[in-house]
Each structure stands twice: as structure tokens, then as C-alpha cells.
Amino acid sequence: MTTSDHRPLTTYDRRMHRLMNRREAARFHATAARRRAWVVTHILLTVASEAAWLGAVVWEQRWATWTMLGLLLPWCFATGVINSSTRGLLELRVRALDERQRAERLRVAALAQRVMMWVLLAATVGAGVAALAGVEVEGLVFPVLFSVFVVHWIMPLWMAGLTARDEPDLDDDEDIAVEAAGAA
Amino acid sequence: MSEQVHNRLAMVRAERKVSRQRLAEAVGAHYQTIGYIERGQYNPSLDLALKIANFFELPVEALFSLEPFRPLTDQVYGRNQ
User: Fold this and answer.
1) Does residue B1 form part of some domain?
2) Is position B40 within any domain?
3) How far is the C-alpha of B16 from the C-alpha of B34, rounded, in Å?
4) What pLDDT score was predicted for residue A4?
5) Measuring CA to CA, which of A41, A64, A65, B35 is 20 to 30 A from A169?
6) Residue B58 falls within a domain, yes or no?
7) Choosing among A173, A174, A175, A176, which should be mutated to test the B contact, i.e. which has the most B CBs within 10 A?
8) Which residues pair with B67 in a beta bridge?
9) Nearest to A2 among B18, B29, B41 (CB)
């Protein structure tokens, strides 16, 4: 890799690199519309899972626990598809990325940071308005902070999924033919 | 800020019968990066451009240029544009 991090890839790095570059899920994220749909699905699943977690932990609702467990598998699947669409841009260590991927990772982080600023502003204004309206905000502190934390954690993944470009594999057949011709 | 860098990578790669994957492995890049360079969606660093040129044993200006490349047939047969 053309990187300033010259440490050799570990077994873990190589395994993750192979995993993130598997082509089986390529058709799920082949177009921008599909990638957007997966990100929207992931946002909805995250919001639902977060609400269920808060329901289970804060409000001690038993059904919420089962809901959360039920949402876990689809959430993991959607996360996997988005990671596949970015070829592990955020999952792989920097040493396993090339110069373009490292630049994209920085760009995604900057974009996520800008979007998070507006999310935090909305949360701050919302809390202020609620307090002025006489709402008991003490009980909302933990749920709001937890929600903002989760959004902050996952925002780079959403941004990476939304800004990922179509894979340059349109001439795969040609590439395979070229490879075969070279091997012959 | 980023100026378009024109390249003949796809043509040379096809001519030499080298797949994106093989070129990517040889120069330490991701196969997508090679594809984005070919599409003009990513300008490689000098380091990567030199590695690619070195792989094909060509001068870097044979592969990359700030000006659009003339069609090869024009260059070979000397037709003026």
C-alpha cells in the first residue's frame, strides 16, 4: 500500500481485507439508489433498535428486549451490506487501505463531523425549548445522550454508504478474459 | 483544486493483458483505485503514478498527462489534428 504506515499486515488485517472485498453482495449495492435504500433501512433499524434498547433498559419493558433481539440480525446484515459497498473503508485498519481509500476515509469523517454538528445543534435547541416549555428534562437526559452517542458512532458509516461510488467492475468479464489470456 | 489528470492506463493495461486486480496487487493499491484512475475519478499520487509506470516499464508521461492524449493512431501515423 502507498501509505506512511509501513507496518506489515497482520493475519487479522488480511482476513478482514478478504472479507470486505468479497463480491457476493455486490449486486445489493451496485447502484446509488440501492446504496441509499440500504442506508435509509439501516437508519430506520438503528432508530428502532435504539428505542427498543431504551425501552428495555430505561423503561424496563420486556417486549422491548425481544424486539431489540429481533432487530439485531437485520441490523447486522444491513451494516454488512454498507461495509461491503465501501469495501471496508471504516472497518479496515489504515495500514490495510491504499492512498485513495485513506483520503476517502478522511473525507467521510469530515462529512460526518459536519452533519453531527447539526444533529447536536438540534438536540441542544430541542432540549432548550423543552426546558422552556416546562417539560421535565431530567428523565430525557440519558435517552437523548445515548441517542446522540449512537448517531455519532454510526454517522460515518451512513456517510460512507451515501457517498460510495459505483464499483469500477463494469468490464469484469473483460478483466477475467485478460487474466485468463495472461495465464495461458 | 484537483486538476483532471488524463491517462492511458486502460489502453495500456488491455494491450499488456494485465487485469486490474493484478496491477493493483503489483503497485500496492486496491483494484477499485485502478478503476477510478482509469475513469478519471481519481488522480493518483506521484508515488502511485511512478509505481504504475514502473510496472509497465514506461515513462510516467506515457501514461499520465495534464493535457488530453492524442489518439494513438494519430501519433503513430503522424496525422495532424
Assistant:
1) no
2) yes
3) 15
4) 56
5) A41
6) yes
7) A175
8) none
9) B29
> Using CB atoms, which residue from A101, A165, A178 is nearest to B41?
A165
* pLDDT for residue A182 is more than 50: no
Q: Please name every residue paired with B65 in a beta bridge, in sequence order, or none if there are none.
A: B6
Cα distance between residue A15 and residue A43, in whole Å: 28
Do the beta carbons of residue B64 and residue B43 sit within 8 Å?
Answer: no
Identify residues of A whose CB sits under 8 angstroms from chain B CBs: 1-2, 87, 97-101, 165, 167-169, 174-176, 178-179, 181-182
DSSP code of residue A9 = P
C-alpha of B36 from chain center: 11
Contact A168 B32 (CB under 8 A): yes
| CA distances for A63 relative to A57, A71, A92, A168, angstroms | 11, 12, 36, 45
B28 with A1: Cβ contact below 8 A: yes
Nearest CA in chain A to B46: A2
Q: What is the mean pLDDT of the segment spanning B29-44? A: 93
Where on the phi/psi map is residue A8: left (φ > 0), alpha (ψ -120 to 50), or beta? Answer: beta
Distances from the Cα of A71 to the Cα of A22, A45, A149, B2, B74, angstroms: 25, 7, 19, 43, 61
Q: Residue B25: which domain range?
A: 6-77
How much is the ipTM here?
A: 0.83
Return the amino acid letter for B26.
Answer: A
What are the helix (H) ranges across chain A? 11-20, 32-57, 62-85, 99-132, 141-163, 172-183
At A1 the pLDDT is 46
| Chain A / chain B CB contacts < 8 angstroms | 62
DSSP, collapsed to helix, strand or coil, labels residue A71 as helix
Number of domains chain B contains: 1
Q: What CATH number does residue B68 fall under?
A: 1.10.260.40
